[in-house]
Amino acid sequence: MSASDDFPNPSSRPSAARAGAQHQGIYARLQENAPQSIDRAGDTGPGACRDDGGAGQRQQQNQAGAAPDHGPIHCICIDPADVARVRPLVSHLIRAAMRKGRISAFADVEAAVLDGRQLLWVAADSSAIWAAAVTQLAWANGEKLCTIVACGGRERARWLPLKAELEAFAKAEGCAAIRIHGRRGWAREFPDYRLTRILLEKELT
Fold first, then answer.
1. Which of 18, 51, 122, 179 lies in disulfide reach of 156, CB 3.0 to 4.6 Å?
2. Sequence-separated (6 or more) residues with CB below 8 Å from residue 128
3. Is pTM, for the whole model, over 0.85?
4. Which of these, 176, 178, 182, 205, lies nearest to 192 by C-alpha position?
């Protein structure tokens, strides 16, 4: 039985509070789908989180002096009803992460996000989208679990602490644990997580 069969669709839809209500100004701009006012994060950073190590920021600083301060970066859950409008701003991040991670297909995750079985999250301030992630809720052996299916962004030091908000979401949903599917190096970034499984692979030539 698939995760989507285990976890009915309505249960994975966010409450109004989670779907951006706490950051209405930023959320409204995301809904407007206005790339000219919200920068697309570089195609960079679990499936695989790609990161440019701050190169993008350094380039901007070299070209125009100190980087402008656009306020704190917020973790915003996108209401499934609004995903189609926000998707053009972040799909490149999720696609790149999943291509690197090679765990599942982007098309499957995209379909699940569009119909509300999985949730789209963005890390954004008043002028830029820094990262995007997808979470999935499912049942396994009588336990409810939250999995970060994919995550991609730039300058992860700016937004990685926002994982605490995903953990709070999972706890509020009654999950026993939150999981990350990612590359081995991500274990260093999550010292409070423990390794519980490994993925073995053999190339067939």
1. 51
2. 38, 39, 41, 70
3. no
4. 178
pLDDT by residue (tens digit) across 64-84?
A: 444 556 678 999 999 888 888
Where do runs of H (alpha helix) occur along the chain? 3-6, 24-32, 55-64, 83-101, 106-114, 163-172
Alpha-carbon 83 to chain mean position: 13
In the three-class reduction of DSSP (H, G, I as helix; E, B as strand; rest coil), residue 150 is classed as strand
DSSP string, 37-78: TSBPPPS---------TTHHHHHHHHHHSSPP-----EEEEE
CB atoms under 10 Å from CB of 117, counted, come to 22
Q: In the numeric block, which tokens belong to residue 169?
A: 């979401």
Nearest to 136 by CA among 159, 103, 96, 90: 103
State the chain's mean pLDDT as an integer: 75
Span 94-110, pLDDT tens digits: 998 888 767 778 889 99
Contact 19, 79 (CB under 8 A): yes
Tell me what percent of the residues of the chain surpass a pLDDT of 90.
31
Token pair, residue 73, equals 């970066």
SS3 16: coil
SS3 at position 173: coil
**What is the maximal distance between C-alpha atoms in the chain?**
55
**Token pair 């490149």 in the structure block, residue:** 92
Going by their DSSP bridges, the two strands 177-180 and 143-153 should be labelled as parallel
| pLDDT for position 79 | 86
